[in-house]
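Give me the fold.
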Amino acid sequence: MKPTLRKPVGIFAILAIITIWAVIVASFSSIIGGWHIAVQSVIYCVAGIIWIAPMRPLMIWMETGRWRA
């Protein structure tokens, strides 16, 4: 088997997605910070889970070379 660049590229893509998502969420922190603590908790929990959604196709691509299983 010949090694491919899919895994290194995938790793950099994962880091980029996480960084971009963190910047987006942090940019709204001044707005969200004024809300009730319960609402903040829900928003940050949801935001902490949403970034996982694009990871599945990326991980499949890294392993198989295809975007769908």
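The first helix runs from residue 6 to 27.
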